[in-house]
Amino acid sequence: MKQIILFFAFLFTVNQSHSQENLPTDYLSKEFHKGRREAFRNLMPANSVAVIFSYPERVFSNDMNYKFHQNPDLYYLSGYKEPDAVLLIFKENQGTGETYNEVFFIRERDPKKETWTGRRLGIEGTKSQLGFTAVYNGRDFKDFPINFKKFDKIIYDKIPTDLNANQTGFDLFGLLQSFKTKAGITTNDNTSLDLFADITNSLREIKTPEEMELMRKTVKLSCIAHNEVMKAVGPQMSENEAEGIHTYIHKRYGAEGEGYNPIVGAGANGCILHYEENNSTKIDNQLLLMDVGSEYHGYSADVTRTIPANGKFTEEQKAIYQLVYDAQEAVFKICKEGTPLIDLNATAKEVLAKGLIKLGIITDPKDVKLYYPHSCSHFLGLDVHDKFTFKGPQSALKENMIITVEPGIYIPAGSKCDKKWWNIGVRIEDDIAIKKDTYENLSADSPRKWQDIEKLAAEKSTFNDMKFPKI
Ligand SMILES: [Mn+2]
Fold first, then answer.
1. How far is the CA of 404 from the centre of ligand 1 (A)?
2. Which of 56, 67, 107, 163 is the most buried (most CB within 10 A)?
3. CATH number of the 21-203 domain
4. Domain named Aminopeptidase P N-terminal: which ranges (predicted)?
C-alpha cells in the first residue's frame, strides 16, 4: 500500500512540476479563435449575449467514457478542448471600470483527477494559451453577476436534456442548470436556435487561410492512407484490417482520429450506404468501397475510393466506375463561385441517368434514384457534414467554401437489371475548395482514374511485409 501511495505521490509531483512537452505546433492560433469571436460578435443583434456550451461526456462502458470530442462551435470560437465549459460572448462591453465582452467558465484544475484522467488547461492555461482575459472556474458561473434578463436576445444552441449531475455539481449539467435559472428558461425554449445557426453557419461555411491549411493537411494524409491501402489490399485481407491501415496512417501523421466512422465495405457491403460493421473477414475478388477521412486538429477529410481487391477491374466494374467518374468530372466543371448549390446534384444525376440508360440498367431517367439514392455534395470542415447556409435555389457556392463531390452507383443483388451488375457499388468522393473562377481538388493526391488505380495497386506496400505471430 505504501508503495502505491508513493507511486501516486510521484505522479502528483511530476504532474505539478511539468507542463506537457512535444505537443503539435500547428494548432489554430489564439488569434484565429479571437478573430472568429469578433466575427461572431459582429453578426449579433444589439444588446444580446451568446451562450455556447461544451459537448457532454458520454458513457462507453461502466465507468469509461467515449473519448471526448468538443462541440465544434465552441472549439471554433475558443480552441478549448475539454468538457464542462461555457463561453459567453456579449455584443456590447459589460461591467464598469475594467469592462469585458466575453467570459469563459472552464473546467477547474484538480491535481488528483489530473493524475488519472489527464492534464487540464485551467484558468492560467486558458489565459496564456488561448488568449482569454476573463476566465473563471465552472463553479463560479452560478453566482457570477450576469443579469440575462436585461438582454433583448439570448443566443444559444440546443440544450441537451438527458444529463445527470456528477458529484461536483459544476459539470455541464450544473452549468446548464445555472444558465436556465439565471436566464429564466423554464421549458426548452428554442426560439434562439435559428439565430445561433444563422451566425455559425455563415461563419463556418467560409474557411479562413488557417483553416484551409489544416484542411489541406487532413485531406492530404487521408489520401496517403487510401493510396497505401490500394497497394496493400488483396483478396485475403479483411475489411477490418483495411480500415486499420487507414487509421494507423492517420495517427502516424498526427491526426487525432477519424472525422466519422470509417466505411470499408466489400462487394455487397459496398452497396450499403453507411455500412460501418467492416467485419467481413475476406474481401475476396470484389470491389472494396472505402469512405474514410481523418480528423486533424478538429478538421475532417472525407475521401472515398473504390478499388478492385485483386488489382484489376472487371469489364462491368469498369463500366460503372467510369460512369461515376464522368459524373464527378461533370460536377467539378461547375465548381466555382456563383454556381447554385442545387446545380451540383442535378448535374451528377443527369450524367448518371444517361449512363445507366446507355448501359441498359434503367430505361426511365427517373429510375436513377434506385441506384443513386443520395446527393452529390455536402460542406466539409470541423464537421464532416459541415454547417452552411441554405436559403433556397438562389444559395450558391462562394470562394473558400469546401465541399465534397461524391456521386455513386450501388446495384445490390436482386436489382431489376442483368445479374452481371449485381453487387457492384462504386462511390468516388473528393474534397473541393471553391475559388472565384475554378476549384482546387484537395484530394488529388489519391488516384481516381481506374487506370491509375490499377497501376498503384500493382505496387507493393510496406504493410505486405509485416509479420505478426499467429493466435
Ligand atoms: Mn461525404
1. 6
2. 107
3. 3.40.350.10
4. 28-170
